[in-house]
Amino acid sequence: MTVRIPLPERLKAMVADPPDPPVEARDAATIVVVRDGADGIEAYLMRRQTSMAFAAGMYVFPGGGLMASDIELDVPWSGPDAAEWGRRFRCAPDLARGLVVAAVRETFEETGILLAGPDADTVVSDTSGDDMQAARDALEEGELAFADFLTDHGLVLRADLLGAWAHWITPDYEPRRYDTRFFVAALPEGQRVGSMSREADRAGWSPLSRVLASVEAGEAAMMPPTATTCREVAAHTAATIVSVSDDRTFPTVLPRVVIVDGEPYLETYRGES
């Protein structure tokens, strides 16, 4: 269903004077990494530094924009192929392949969680060593391509550990816009989160029931795509989340501004569990 969210004061000026023409949205990918906890399903969330140009102070999932190397280089791969991901996200296979690579790369850079293994049946169980942590830094600085990292370590990207969940596009009044595909994945057994990303000032595992209560109470800030995704994922378990996604269909959501009684609202989508 659609919902209308009152625009905060900081956005009203932006809406009144949007870029003309709108800024082109950059392709991006994010992963909702989950685990089962004592209080239900938990997700790994990071609060972006208040100095960040986009989504400052907001709680987000690991992720980021595509790099040319995500599409251009031959990445060791296991699981559903590019054509299948293109079907799930309704995009060209080459772009779909790049989205999967970007999602796994960014999540490793920002958290140390690595959805890859020596073969199609195994996954790395520990990424805490100095070599892996140095690779995270090199990837984040653009000094190392993810394809080269996997090849050097004898690993294949485990695309079968991911599920397609949602597709959101930043509203056209924003000066920075992203065309973002949302994936889901369960934390691989034995892996732990590493050092916190430099883009975040707070990060950790949070029960989604508690997160949503904090957002409703105004104690935590999330953009609509993140809050909606949390609400949808909260109805499931980490053990079943990828299999649930196999049968999932979802719209492409581009929130728009509507004026009601002279006041601007963001009209957006709220998924039903």
3D architecture notes:
The structure is a single chain. This protein is an alpha+beta fold and 273 residues long. The protein has one domain (2-269): Nucleoside Triphosphate Pyrophosphohydrolase (Alpha-Beta Complex). 30% of the residues lie in helices and 28% in strands. It has nine helices and 14 strands. The chain has helices at residues 9-16, 68-72, 82-89, 93-111, 130-140, 146-152, 208-216, 224-233, 241-246, and strands at 2-6, 26-37, 40-48, 59-60, 63-65, 77-78, 116-117, 156-158, 163-169, 178-186, 200-207, 252-253, 256-260, 263-269. Strands 2, 3, 4, 5, 9, 10, 11 and 12 form an eight-stranded mixed β-sheet that branches. A three-stranded antiparallel β-sheet has the order 1-14-13, with no helix packed on it. Helix 3 packs across helix 4 (93-111). The longest helix is centred in the middle third of the chain and has 19 residues, at 93-111. It is globular, with a radius of gyration of 18 Å.
List the helices and strands and how they pair.
Layout: E1 2-6, H1 9-16, E2 26-37, E3 40-48, E4 59-60, E5 63-65, H2 68-72, E6 77-78, H3 82-89, H4 93-111, E7 116-117, H5 130-140, H6 146-152, E8 156-158, E9 163-169, E10 178-186, E11 200-207, H7 208-216, H8 224-233, H9 241-246, E12 252-253, E13 256-260, E14 263-269
Parallel strand pairs: 2-10, 6-8, 9-12
Antiparallel strand pairs: 1-14, 2-3, 2-5, 3-4, 3-11, 7-8, 9-10, 13-14
